[in-house]
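Appendix C: a fully annotated inverse folding record. The material below is reproduced so that readers can follow the format used throughout the book. The structure is listed first as tokens, followed by the designed sequence.
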């Protein structure tokens, strides 16, 4: 496993994971003494410094795990628990930003248990919500160092997140079956009783379990738990309670080596050359502070072992074939072409909902089909050569491609914006002599196939009927052979379709309306639960609270031009020039959504020069959709109508209408644009 350590401190993770064979890619630490400790022990590992200045996109594919404990003072009792209002608490947002940019298989975030109750739980709830936005599965647990072989009570919250791609379950990493049986820690007695009991039970030196000889024959003092008092710097008196006893009853200060052992580090790990002085002169105070801020090594070792254990279990399951189907579908999903087609396809013009066709033309949603559906598509394509072979067997002449180009027969219209590809051209169809026909081959399941046989293609599959009318209009052929194969029974249904000038003209008129419409056509239904809307890919942004993809096609500045001399021409009123297909796919920083595409609010005002559109929701909440530069200017921050760039709105949807302090902090500090699209 390769890992990136954030807010590294003195690197408990590396001490814990080095025996497991894990390799650090980089550290991130700004405090001078911990940074010097890292340089002393790991001179070949880069320290990237400030966590907020790291570009995680450069590390994508290089990191399997991100680990870090952002400063806990913002959430601890001792730190007055300012939570996300404290700049130190906001470093957890920077942590999540890097998780999104790097996309590791696993991340581990450590903090004090007070995180869960900070700001009445809202801070931790916001953190969990952000993890969900990143599409990670998360689980958390409070682990106490005393149950991992260390002589101190040190409770810490550990949050483990797993990407959907890695297939690991964070609950299985954090929870063992033994832990579910219930082994509660011993109840804490009154502090005076604990101290007196331990002090009185020591008897002779070296007879108790926590008293042992060090390497020089000296006695390591026993440890008392539960006593509040003057203890080593860096330890939180609300969370960590330990004091050494010497001479049986005298409470004294812990030595640096004892603190190292309490955290699981090797002896003198923090004893380093410091500012020109030898290691033997290293200041104790800096060692105490660095150790007090560190994670406990055995706890981190256990977490690493748990991750390895469950990765190996998952690999075993894969080898046993329990997830073969999932792997097949995932491979198909990973390899699918997610670039939407450049033209408006003849195959969709006949769909009942004109708004759906418009959304597809505008690239409102990038193609993202489940593996099962992709396999069905592939089966349909694979059926075509079989059908052609069968047709030739009965004496038909079939051409699958244009002999002059070697490619499929294509038609184009409306300035190159409307287009389609024929499955083939066929003649010598029995009963029709040498008449050339458009050949259209489809596949269907048993139920739709039965309806097709009963009702015919014009009534049952109007999109296929319109597609063939456009193909006949574009090629000059006056007939089409429609052949459908039932995937379940291999039954075949055929129809010969005559060219219908009225139907073809209606399809062209519909295509022109879609091309020229600057706003979405009317909805087929206002009820998102209606069955035709329920299964539509565009339901989330047509009826729901999501915003479409960001591209030139969804931008108010872009317009398709019907120019027969320049096929597929798009122009931008902002840039005052034509747009290449590559440029259309990515858009630019001046992107503003077509107002009708924001379903969860209504456009009420706009400023073309400044570059913003103002919206108002049904609940009376205002916000602006603006270019990214305008949204980032501090002097443009309008509390009544805060500006959000289009990538931000795409990332958050209707959540821009909330007053969540985490979202506001993200917008002002590093923006959901980076979280969603970097």
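Designed amino acids, in order:
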């Amino acid at each position: 496993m390769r890992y990136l350590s954030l807010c590294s401190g003195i690197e408990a993770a590396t001490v814990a994971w080095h025996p497991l064979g894990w390799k650090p890619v980089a550290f991130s630490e700004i405090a001078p003494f911990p940074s010097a400790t890292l340089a002393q022990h790991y001179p070949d590992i880069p320290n990237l410094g400030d966590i907020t200045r790291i570009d995680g996109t450069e590390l994508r594919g290089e990191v399997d795990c991100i680990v870090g404990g952002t400063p806990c003072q913002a959430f601890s009792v001792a730190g007055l628990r300012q939570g996300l209002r404290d700049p130190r608490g906001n470093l957890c947002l920077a942590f999540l930003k890097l998780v999104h940019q790097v996309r590791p298989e696993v991340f581990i975030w450590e903090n004090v248990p007070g995180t869960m109750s900070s700001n009445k739980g809202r801070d931790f709830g916001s953190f969990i919500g952000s993890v969900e936005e990143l599409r990670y599965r998360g689980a958390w647990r409070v682990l106490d160092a005393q149950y991992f072989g260390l002589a101190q009570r040190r409770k810490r919250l550990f949050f483990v997140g797993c990407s959907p791609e890695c297939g690991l379950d964070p609950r299985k990493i954090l929870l063992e079956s033994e832990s579910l049986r219930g082994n509660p820690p011993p109840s804490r007695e009154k502090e005076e009783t604990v101290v007196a009991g331990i002090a009185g039970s020591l008897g002779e030196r070296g007879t108790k379990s926590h008293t042992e000889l060090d390497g020089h024959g000296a006695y390591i003092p026993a440890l008392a738990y539960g006593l509040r008092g003057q203890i080593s710097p860096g330890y939180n008196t609300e969370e960590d309670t330990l004091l050494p006893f010497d001479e049986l009853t005298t409470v004294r200060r812990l030595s640096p080596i004892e603190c190292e052992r309490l955290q699981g580090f090797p002896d003198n790990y923090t004893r380093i050359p410091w500012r020109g002085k030898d290691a033997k002169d290293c200041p104790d105070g800096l060692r105490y502070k660095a150790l007090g801020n560190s994670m406990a090594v055995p706890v981190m070792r256990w977490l690493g072992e748990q991750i390895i254990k469950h990765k190996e279990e998952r690999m075993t399951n894969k080898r046993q074939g329990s997830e073969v189907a999932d792997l097949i579908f995932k491979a198909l999903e990973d390899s699918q072409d997610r670039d939407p087609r450049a033209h408006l396809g003849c195959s969709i013009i006949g769909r009942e909902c004109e708004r759906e066709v418009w959304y597809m033309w505008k690239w409102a949603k990038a193609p993202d089909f489940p593996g099962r559906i992709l396999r069905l598509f592939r089966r349909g394509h694979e059926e075509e050569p079989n059908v052609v072979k069968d047709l030739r067997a009965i004496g038909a002449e079939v051409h699958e491609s244009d002999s002059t180009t070697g490619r499929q027969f294509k038609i184009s219209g409306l300035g190159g914006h409307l287009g389609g590809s024929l499955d083939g051209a066929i003649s010598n169809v029995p009963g029709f002599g040498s008449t050339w026909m458009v050949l259209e081959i489809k596949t269907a399941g048993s139920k739709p196939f039965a309806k097709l046989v009963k009702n015919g293609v014009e009534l049952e599959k109007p999109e296929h009927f319109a597609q063939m009318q456009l193909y006949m209009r574009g090629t000059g052929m006056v007939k089409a052979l429609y052949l459908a194969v039932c995937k379940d029974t291999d039954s075949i249904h055929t129809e010969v379709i005559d060219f219908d000038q009225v139907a073809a003209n209606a399809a062209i008129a519909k295509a022109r309306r879609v091309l020229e419409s600057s706003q979405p056509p009317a909805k087929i239904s206002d009820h998102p639960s209606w069955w035709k809307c329920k299964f539509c890919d565009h339901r989330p942004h047509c009826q729901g609270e999501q915003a479409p993809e960001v591209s030139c096609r969804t931008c108010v500045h872009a317009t398709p031009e019907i120019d027969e001399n320049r096929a597929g021409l798009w122009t931008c009123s902002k840039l005052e020039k034509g747009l290449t297909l590559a440029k259309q796919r990515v858009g630019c920083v001046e992107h503003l959504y077509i107002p009708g595409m924001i379903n969860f609010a209504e456009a009420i005002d706009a400023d073309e020069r400044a570059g913003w559109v103002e919206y108002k929701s049904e609940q009376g909440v205002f916000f602006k959709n603006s270019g990214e530069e305008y949204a980032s200017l501090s002097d443009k921050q309008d509390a009544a109508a805060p500006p959000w760039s289009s990538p931000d709105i795409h990332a958050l949807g209707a959540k821009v209408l909330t007053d969540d302090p985490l979202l506001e902090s993200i917008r002002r500090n590093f923006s959901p644009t980076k979280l969603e699209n970097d």
